[in-house]
Design goal:
Shape: globular
Distance between the termini: 57 Å
Radius of gyration: 27 Å
Oligomer: single chain
Helix content: over 70%
Largest sheet: none
Length: 621
């Protein structure tokens, strides 16, 4: 690749994209469509007499970088604490409408006699609305502060999570070229362990690293460090056979917990805009108007299905979640399009060679149609509300109003007791510990598969690299396993206290509590042991070596129990501080240091007096 060719192609992209997006801004249309149009004008199907792009591979390579910056920026805006703020409604709406849209796309593909993987990818393409297009549309219409806009932004966060899971699942399923429930569940399970491990480790290290780098008061140093983390984790995701988009999004969400996030967002912004423009332009290069016209029927059918389906099911889900009729209908209207994630999913299928050539241009054309209609669809929702109120039976309207008021009153009540909250918290911690252990042994399996030479400490007669790797993974997992054991003890004792008969004789009550607590403890231990054996099956040592390593692990855990507990406790405290500390707002060209405000929540009181349980809870939580 010559430097002159690279510069020429990049110059053509930026100049044509600049002219077209100005025209789209004047026409009050989403500029994303302008980027796609610019790509079409530059591509092989251009109506211009001159072919301006000499080497399309360069633009596609830059487009891959655009995906990294696009997903990294979405991660920076994600902020894990927003999950608590947006409430449970969006996690009702998003799975409901994305699940139905996936099924709808699957069935429409079958009706059109598409191949199985084409149908699967079509369902995934129809699932996710466009964060970029919706945000730009609401901003241009000056509606971003309306109540329905806040609901939409919350649903988009939940959809982003679903999209990342879908991309990772399709990456795993696409390798086999088949869609089956077993491989999908296996992929999602491994993905969950990878995500939780990456999030926990990232939250412990990345924000502190960036906060430390921020003390140098150098924007250049901070930017390069953030970009290093971005591309490093993206590369890790590729090495683990996940999508580059997954790594970029996760590290962005982790960096969002740094106190330097406001400055990082400002520094990343111009780079993101440039490479995002290149990404959407690269999409436009693949547009073939002849092929789109050939499939104009599917384009119109899918556009109508997306606009109607998302409007109905997002509106229905929002109403069921407690929002009034007007807000719900506006939410449905605002969500009725597809965009960047659909392009990424379609591009993934093309790259892996598991979908037909016509799927990608159809997805682009459907996005163009639905995105253009979104502003008019939002404005039309007011008329739909008025018509519904005017012509619907009064009994039906009274029922809808009564339901909305009941849901809102229900949401204001504190339903959970202190014990239930404590049990829910322990269950979450147990799942996190299981995921961390899974992540450690999954990483060990990947190392073993890649044949790391320095692992050959044990001779082949004693298991070779497998025995070495299992021992290392077991040692790394010991702090988490000890924490899992302690939390399982606390969980069993709380359940035994609640479930044991209150009016029985003392001896019967003690026996019942012991039976329940021991059952919970042994069941949990069996589950974690079986899980470790399954995950490490590729590098499991011989039986005698496995027994020796297990005995050594137990002995080490007993001897260094307090040391491992301190390590886990410090990590837990550090993680809580990362997720609860206030961000320092950065001005445009200055670093202002402010005091950190740490909020310490009071522990709920247990409704029973049991010193053993209280001691375990205090030490384990």
């Amino acid at each position: 690749m010559h430097a002159a060719d690279f510069l020429q192609n990049l110059a053509m992209v930026m100049m044509v994209a600049g002219v077209v997006t100005v025209l789209f801004r004047l026409a009050k249309q989403p500029v994303v469509l302008g980027y796609i149009l610019a790509g079409w004008l530059l591509g092989p199907q251009t109506p211009l007499p001159v072919h301006l792009i000499e080497n399309e591979e360069i633009i596609h390579t830059l487009g891959e970088i655009g995906i990294v910056f696009l997903l990294f920026s979405l991660g920076l805006e994600f902020n894990l604490r927003k999950i608590r703020q947006i409430g449970p409604t969006v996690f009702l709406v998003a799975p409901l409408e994305t699940g139905i849209m996936f099924f709808l796309g699957l069935q429409l593909g079958r009706i059109m006699d598409w191949e199985t993987m084409d149908c699967v990818y079509l369902g995934a393409i129809m699932m996710i609305s466009s964060t970029t297009i919706i945000t730009k549309t609401l901003t241009e219409m000056r509606l971003q502060k309306e109540k329905f806009a806040e609901v939409i932004f919350g649903i988009l966060i939940a959809e982003d999570i679903i999209a990342i899971l879908m991309i990772a699942a399709l990456s795993g399923v696409g390798l086999s070229g088949e869609f089956a429930l077993g491989p999908l569940l296996s992929t999602v399970g491994k993905l969950g362990a990878f995500l939780i491990t990456l999030l926990i480790v990232g939250l412990l290290l990345a924000p502190r690293l960036l906060d430390y780098i921020g003390k140098f008061k150098s924007e250049e140093t901070l930017l390069i460090a953030a970009l290093g983390l971005c591309f490093g984790v993206s590369l890790l995701a590729i090495k683990l056979e996940y999508s580059v988009a997954l790594g970029a999004f996760i590290i962005g969400a982790v960096i969002a917990e740094s106190r330097e996030i406001h400055l990082i967002e400002r520094l990343i912004g111009p780079i993101r805009i440039m490479f995002s423009a290149v990404f959407f332009t690269a999409i436009g290069l693949l547009i073939d108007p002849v092929k789109i016209w050939q499939y104009i029927g599917p384009v119109l059918l899918l556009s109508a299905a997306i606009m109607t389906g998302k409007f109905i099911f997002c509106s229905f889900g929002s109403f069921i979640g407690g929002y009034d009729q007007k807000t719900s209908l506006k939410v449905g209207a605002g969500m009725s399009q597809i965009g960047e994630f659909s392009f990424i999913i379609a591009a993934l299928g093309m790259e892996m060679g598991v979908i037909s050539d016509h799927v990608y241009p159809i997805a682009v054309a459907v996005s163009a149609v639905t995105s253009t209609c979104t502003p008019y669809w939002i404005r039309l929702s007011d008329r739909i509300v008025d018509m519904h109120r005017r012509f619907a039976p009064q009994l039906w309207l009274n029922y809808l109003n009564t339901y909305s008021e009941w849901i809102q009153r229900l949401g204001r009540k504190k339903k959970d007791s202190a014990v239930r909250k404590m049990i829910r918290k322990i269950i979450i911690q147990l799942f996190v510990n299981v995921a961390l252990v899974s992540g450690i042994f999954l990483f060990g399996a990947i190392l073993y598969r890649n044949g790391i030479e320095w692992l050959n400490w044990f001779p082949e007669s004693m298991g070779g690299a497998g025995s070495t790797l299992f021992g290392i993974c077991l040692l790394a997992a010991l702090p988490v396993l000890i924490a899992f054991f302690r939390k399982l003890q606390a969980f069993g004792m709380i359940l035994s206290e609640l479930a044991a008969p209150q009016r029985a004789q003392r001896s019967v009550r003690v026996a019942s509590k012991a039976l329940i607590a021991n059952t919970v403890l042994f069941t949990g231990l069996i589950i974690i042991v079986v899980m470790i054996l399954l995950l490490s099956s590729a590098f499991l040592p011989p039986a005698e070596i496995l027994t020796a390593l297990a005995v050594m692990g137990v002995a080490l855990a007993l001897a260094l129990r307090r040391f491992f507990i301190r390590i886990y406790a410090k990590a837990q405290i550090a993680l809580k501080e990362t997720l609860t500390k206030e961000k320092i707002k950065k001005h445009r060209h200055s670093y202002d240091s402010e005091n950190e405000n740490h909020q310490v929540g009071s522990k709920p009181e247990l409704p029973f007096d049991h010193a053993a349980i209280q001691t375990i809870l205090i030490s384990s939580l």
